[in-house]
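> tool_call: predict_assembly(chains=two)
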Amino acid sequence: QLEQELVEYFRTQVRQDPEVPSAVAAIRTLLEFLKRDQTGETILGLRENLTQTIRRLEEADSSVAVSSGGELFLRFISLTSLEHPDLSQCKKVMVERGELFLKKISLSRSKVAKLCHTFIKDGAKILTHSSSRVVLKVLESAAADKKRFTVYVTESQPDSAGQMADKLQNLNIPVTVVLDAAVGYIMEKVDLVIVGAEGVVESGGIINKIGTYQLAVCSKAHNKPFYVVAESFKFVRLYPLNQQDVPERFKYKADTLKAVEDLAEEHPMIDYTPPSLITLLFTDLGVLTPSAVSDELIKLYL
Amino acid sequence: MKRESIVPAACAAVTYTVLCHPHHHTVFIVLTDGPGNKDDITRSKNEGKELSKEEKQRLRKQKKQQKKQKERKNEKSETEKEKTPVSLLPPPRPVATQKAPSALPAPASAPIPVPASAPFHSSPAPSPADKPAKSKAELKAERRARQETDRAAKQPGSSSSGIKTKVPLSELNPVVKRLPEHVQVDDPAVVKRLAKKLERQQIPLRSDYGYKVSLFSHLHQYSRKAPLTQQLSIPSTVIHPSIVRLGLQYSQGIVAGSNARSVALLHAFKQVIRDYTTPPNEELSRDLVNKLKPYISFLNQCRPLSASMGNAIKYIKKEISNIPSQCKEEEAKTKLLTCIDRYIEEKIVLAAKAISKYAIEKISDGDVILVYGCSSLVNNILCEAFEKSRKFRVIVVDSRPRLEGREALRRLVQRGISCTYVLISALSYILPEVSKVFLGAHALLANGYVMSRVGTSQIALVARTFNVPVLVCCETYKFCEKVQTDSFVSNELDDPDDLMVTRKGKTQLENWQDVSSLGLLNLVYDVTPPDFVDLVITDLGMIPCTSVPVVLRVKNLDQ
């Protein structure tokens, strides 16, 4: 069945290129779907099929990024469909534009890195959380700029992301791994905190690996700047009011959601950091304050 | 004693004759200024130089001449009514706009007050013969008003100091934003201006009541026992009866609540439009707007207009003035009526449905929701959520003297929602139980502040300390361009007698007027800063409180 193929395609994408963001892989898969799909007769039908595929993909990988990437693609599709009433022509245009879009967003990580690395001063001590490829890119470009800095990485259980420490060592950046519990202890030593994000919500807050929230609270208490680096395709149309308000389908891994009956027993994998704790967000749209995120989203979606 | 100020712009070259006004015992000299002298004056003014003494005197005399001429013309058309002296016909000049939540016309200032010797007539019911002349006079009055605002822009300088101060032309060209008159009640000049304007529109002036607390002495304070309608003659030929009824309903509190007031206003305007006939030689688009102005002043006197009413009035005025001149009257009227119906349908009814849809997503099973007072929108949301079988319970917080929470309680209990009722003093006691707070809003200001019933900011503040999310529900037609950071600058003072309460046959504050050091304060609105509000639900979606100016900008682009 086409959907099974696509999920396989998605998985192979992620496996082949570990650097690719999951949202990009999702969009690439959806583009594949557009190319391969023969059954669609109407634009509405096409949209329905796409929504189905996105849902299937979300089941495969339950991160927020897949959801946001899928929604972005859908919105972009609905815009195109208004211009070309003929389906086959529409599809062609969609595929073209999809490729263009993909090209643009594959460059977004380097755009973010370019913006952010200037905020890292010489001799800085940076604290980061878990393993984020965007943060890695930022630190890479800062190192390439001949800046000297040290990095503290949290161990980030339950799936310890020690790989971040290895990668940084390969770049010859002095790195120390600290326990998640030692964040408060180490906060007075560091100068700034940089984290990635799995999703940026409408209020300007972020959804990220669990432990980010307490990192943010500690940095606020010590008056250290808390920076978030995220590409613009991670903006998602959610508005959580507190930790409980984050939908369940994002909190746990895809396999857990399918396998387990009572989710209350499971430990969530992500948490929500409210915008009041975030100093600045670095995106490929520019350097934004949390309140400007909503501005961008309104421009994008309304 | 005459007060004067200098006319800044170029005067039309007119030759004057000797005038000996029967009512004034002064004679003015013939003044036929050649164009050359006048140009000199205007040129020097344009260059921003101070006029020489002779030039100033000459200008003053010119002005007086023209005023006398005008007066004579008016005297011929109107026999009884005393007209305040008119200033000269202005060439096209920048119109000073006035940012006021109520779209009131700029108040006319009279730089030269009526001479004491002349008898002061005011006819509340003018004879029918005056009516056609009145429309022309009203146009003149508008022109005057526009002029006076320009002059009044410099007036504070000239009236306070004895000398004539001159403002260079360049400063008058940008739009002059003045404070609306309803927040300047302690300034006698402004009050006088208002009185003159109301007199011109033939609407009685409502007098303030009781001792006002000094911090709020710049606001009006009326008594409910003296409604404006008592001072009107019945039947009033100036004000449409449905407007009179509406005014009474507002002042007595029969129609209360932001949405209810706006809808009632729009229905009354629909009736006005239905009964309207264009007078001969007039255009509907201009005349109807002029007809509405005294109604708006009247309603403003009954109860200060709310932000939502202001936006509705702005919309109607825009629609009326956009009617093409070749449009037939019946067609125009039906068009206007459908416009108003559509406005109500889109901005209020459908908006409420959209807001309920978003808000219901935020209500989960097992929630304990706190509401304050009676907001039609919040009640709507809760009833809809209950129909969609969400399991929640409601805590209704109420406060004196309005006790609006009782109405909300009645509506919710009727639907079968389990409710608790507390007074606002018990707020910190019940907040630990609460999971969400839903608040309505009277208006959302351009800097993200929420203006709502007094007590709302208190609830938001305490909820913030308990880490309870605060959600404000507001339709987009209540967004206004005003900016306010505190509740003092612009507010509404209600009847202080409402604070008196009779318990066990004793009324404690019965003779509060006799105690000279005692003042009663009955505020109606307060302003909540955006840091205390977590989420604003509008018909456009869920936005953070800081994004209100973005929505305003998007809305202005649409229009």
